[in-house]
Design a protein that fits this description.
129 residues; Preprotein_translocase_YajC; transmembrane helix; translocation; protein transport; 5 strands; SH3 type barrels
């Protein structure tokens, strides 16, 4: 009878006192899947997004006249005027229709005036002879 009461009164903490803590083999193995999942999320989701945001920031800082841009509202236009001291960019969205938009509302630079439209080299014609 005393054995039954002794088993009921033994706490789980007392029973586990002989085991190791978090740094034991079991503790590391329990944390390892979470570390692996974070690593996978970082390299598949977080890191590419950071690279894309950095590229967009660089494109917006180098924005100039003639660049074709897409605004966050879905409007495509051509940059007409960029002022360095202000955050506004003048964009022509139709023939003779110009609007001022904030740099932060430009979601992507479709074509840049810095890159030529035809970047392939012209083929040399072979001499007949």
């Amino acid at each position: 009878m005393a054995s039954i009461f002794n088993d009921l009164l033994t706490t789980p903490a007392h029973a586990q006192a002989a085991g190791g803590g978090l740094l034991s083999g079991d503790g590391i193995m329990a944390v390892l899947p979470y570390v692996a999942m974070f690593g996978i999320f970082y390299f598949l989701l977080i890191r590419p997004q950071q690279v894309k945001q950095k590229q967009l920031r660089n494109q917006l800082s180098e924005l100039r006249r003639g660049d074709r841009v897409l605004t966050a509202g879905g409007i495509i236009g051509v940059v007409q005027k960029v002022s360095a001291e202000s955050n506004e960019v003048e964009v022509e969205i139709a023939q003779g229709v110009r609007v001022s938009v904030l740099r932060d509302t430009i979601s992507s630079v479709i074509t840049s005036a810095a890159t030529p439209a035809n970047d392939s080299t012209p083929e040399k014609t072979a001499k007949k002879g």
